[in-house]
Write a structure and sequence with these properties.
The protein is mainly beta. Helix content is 12%, strand content 40%.
């Protein structure tokens, strides 16, 4: 996705001019004095891409680094970075000294476009992490859906990550499947730039969806480094509980007092909701609570029970495995991953059976009146209302275009920050 207005980064990093496989490392003469905080005076710079099956030794041995030095570097890096997590497809850089017969002084592994790990082959060998300078730009997209939101997003080049985030924000107020031709949307969000290149989508600041002439709005407000979403009066859009423990699954079997059991082939109550999803799909706790059971049974397979004080107990059945950090008596938060979809126990295929007990009886979770989150109060509300007014005015100045015929983009602000 293009940005119409950009300001140049004032980064001290050497620009990444692309990377090539190890067999053809790209030499890049540094155009600036530093790269990842390293003074480049008198040094040469090469980049490459980790190939499948390559380890730290594979990457460094051809450049004169001894096995003893590589072993020591791997040992030194343990508190900082596990070298076994070097991934194929990620880029790396080698910084060497021509005056010392090309001896490699630094190996830099890029964990992402922003985060990197430096292996300093000095005496002694040191390993440390760093982050590249990031510039945050705010951008607005608007459009009219001509087929479906999913198709329109694909046609316009909107990232799947951004679309999923939008779905999460409106999860408690509307269903994206109800959007159709003629509906409109407006979204203001952040993008992260490194060396004047967009490397990631940031947070959504505000969004508006018009569905069947009904307007749904969400405005973000940050407190203590956490952003929550509210309507234009500052009332929370979030429920204290998720509508679903899975993202973008389908309900394959509803709550029922009489259902033909797929294995036992007889009519039995089904006091839960089956969500069909691929094996390994993350399962999230629907609300804050405490794990009161984690184990196995013949019928439920691997399953977990979570007590939500004052509300009830949620149960998650047929898991392929539990999240490694989940323990009995542990506190969990709404949305925290507790396990993964599977087919253990009585199951004909991978799915999650979610059950919810209230006052000792199973209830239909999809029909529960879930409590809302907290709304804003002064002084936060006063600041929030001013922000809302500014965003709404900016929206009024943004033309609407058909998504399938291009998307209007507007760069609202630009600010540099280090992260």
């Amino acid at each position: 996705m293009s940005v119409e207005k950009q300001t140049s980064l004032q980064s001290t990093d050497v620009p990444d001019n692309g990377s090539q496989p190890l067999t053809s490392l790209a030499s890049t003469p540094p155009r600036k004095k530093q790269y990842c905080g390293i003074s480049m005076e008198g040094l040469s710079f090469k980049t490459g891409v980790v190939q499948s099956g390559q380890t730290l030794a594979h990457l460094l041995n051809p450049h004169g680094i001894s096995n003893a030095a590589i072993f020591q570097a791997a040992k030194t890096s343990k508190p900082v970075f596990d070298v076994r997590r070097i991934k194929a497809g990620n880029t790396y850089s080698l910084i060497s000294s021509p005056e010392e017969e090309g001896r490699v002084k630094y190996f830099i592994y890029n964990q992402s476009a922003i985060n990197y790990v430096v292996f300093d082959f000095g005496n002694p060998i040191q390993v440390y992490k760093g982050k590249k300078q990031v510039e945050i730009k705010t951008r607005t997209l608007s459009g009219t859906i001509t087929s479906s939101l999913w198709n329109a997003a694909r046609d316009s080049g909107m990232s799947q990550e951004l679309l999923y985030a939008l779905g999460d924000i409106f999860a408690s107020t509307m269903d994206f499947r109800h959007l159709h031709k003629g509906d409109e949307f407006m979204i203001t969000f952040e993008e992260k730039f490194v060396s004047n290149k967009c490397v990631a989508t940031g947070r959504i600041k505000a969004a508006r969806l018009t569905c069947c002439n009904k307007i749904f709005q969400a405005f973000g407000y940050e407190v203590n480094d956490r952003i929550n979403y509210y309507d234009e009066q500052g009332n929370s859009l979030e429920k204290s509980f998720l509508k679903s423990p899975l993202k973008y699954s389908r309900i394959s079997s509803k709550f029922s007092k009489r259902r033909l059991h797929p294995i036992k082939q007889k009519y039995m109550p089904h006091p839960g909701i089956d969500y069909a999803a691929p094996r390994g799909t993350p399962v999230r706790s629907v609300g804050d609570g405490i794990v009161i059971f984690k184990g196995y049974s013949k019928g439920a397979g691997n399953y977990i029970k979570i007590n939500h004080a004052g509300v009830g107990v949620s149960e998650y059945m047929h898991l392929s495995k539990f999240h490694v950090r989940i323990r009995k008596n542990q506190k969990v938060e709404k949305g925290q991953i507790i396990g993964y979809v599977g087919s253990t126990g009585y199951a004909t295929g991978p799915h999650l059976d979610l059950r919810f007990k209230k006052n000792g009886k199973y209830v239909d979770y999809t029909k529960m009146n879930l409590p809302s989150g907290k709304s804003l109060a002064n002084p936060h509300k006063e600041i929030f209302l001013k922000q809302v007014a500014g965003i709404k005015q900016q929206w009024e100045d943004t033309p609407r275009l058909s998504l399938n015929h291009g998307t209007k983009t507007l760069d609202v602000t630009s600010k540099g920050e280090k992260r």
